[in-house]
Amino acid sequence: MVYNKEDWISQRAYAIWEAEGRPCGRETENWQQAAAEFEQLQTTKASIDGTDLIEMLRATGRLMRAGDNHRAQIIQERATIAKR
């Protein structure tokens, strides 16, 4: 889904308001927080729906598992050498 800046900020400000229990008189603060979050997304080049972050985490998870396997292999090889 594609959002323009104003729509995204409006929907995020509404979500913040709901999460806070719908208090009166915090419209400006909620809007400012949502605008700041939007700017952060733009700065980090993150996708609005977070799909790029999810893919990065999945890739990192795979890399971490591959690194763990490599480390385990090195430890096993050292143990084999030590037994000789």
Largest sheet, if any? none
Question: Please, how many domains?
Answer: 1
Gyration radius, to the nearest Å?
Answer: 23 Å
Shape, per Cα inertia axes: elongated
List low-confidence stretches. none
Please give the share of residues in helix. Answer: over 70%
Structural class: mainly alpha
- What is the overall number of helices? 3
Count of individual beta strands: 0
SSE arrangement, N to C: HHH
Give structural notes.
Helices cover 79% and strands 0% of the residues. With 84 residues, the protein is an all-alpha fold. The chain has one domain. The longest helix has 33 residues, at 51-83. The chain starts with a helix and ends with a helix. The mean pLDDT is 78. Pfam families: DUF2934. This is DUF2934 family protein.
Give a short synopsis of this structure.
The chain is mainly α and 84 residues long. It is built from 3 helices and no strands.
Looking at this protein, list some descriptive labels.
mainly alpha, elongated, 84 residues, single chain
Write the layout of secondary structure elements.
Layout: H1 5-19, H2 27-44, H3 51-83
Helix pairs in contact: 1-2
